[in-house]
């Protein structure tokens, strides 16, 4: 039975991943996310349902459009697989608990952002707003009257404000845009994840260290902009998993 649930969660993750990848491409390009249904970006022909099955279609079509044989980017396949696996791992770690749902919200934003921020330097307001609402709903459902809505809201607003100040400072120091608006808004999600200023700062710190390491590895010419959004989410996910396992004590470990 447990195995069946795990397979089911993996499949749900892959299907949502397919939708997230689609959002990641469509929102920055101002294409409606529901209609039109999937089409080939090259020949614009609409795809039949069997050309649209997560993971499988890419393999069966050998990564090419059925009609015009144009290559389909592997990013769809990778995001589907990534979302499926991340949902499965979250379930194996925590079962159907609040931790599972918070993790899959974070992984979902990451899946969309991996496409939209890396390809277009764009983090969608719609994705942020839906995630904020989802965070509140999950806390409400699982913590009921123990949900300290004021503390979570203040943490989210404070993190947003602090990130905004960091941006103003950064813009002055580096004399160019240091942080995007999306990165600032993302920090409110971090605040809503923990409801705790200290943990949110730890996440921001880990995210910055990760971004710094990766930019040092990748950055051959200095003008390269590294999208920060995915790092914020990866840092937050890492800190959240540690935080759930070890509590606040993990800072001393
Ligand atoms: Zn085509």
The run of helices and strands is HHHHHHHHH
Structural class by sheet pairing and helices: mainly alpha
N-C termini distance: 37 Å
Instruction: Provide the β-strand percentage band.
Output: under 5%
> Which regions have little confidence, pLDDT < 50, spanning 5+ residues?
none
What does this structure look like?
This protein is mainly α and 253 residues long. The chain has two domains: 1-96, no CATH class; 122-253, no CATH class. It is 68% helix and 0% strand. The longest helix is centred in the middle third of the chain and has 26 residues, at 149-174. The protein is globular, with a radius of gyration of 19 Å. The two termini are 37 Å apart. The relative contact order is 0.10. It binds zinc ion (ZN). Zinc ion (ZN) is lined by residues 40, 42-43, 45, 65, 67-68, 70. Zinc ion binds next to loops.
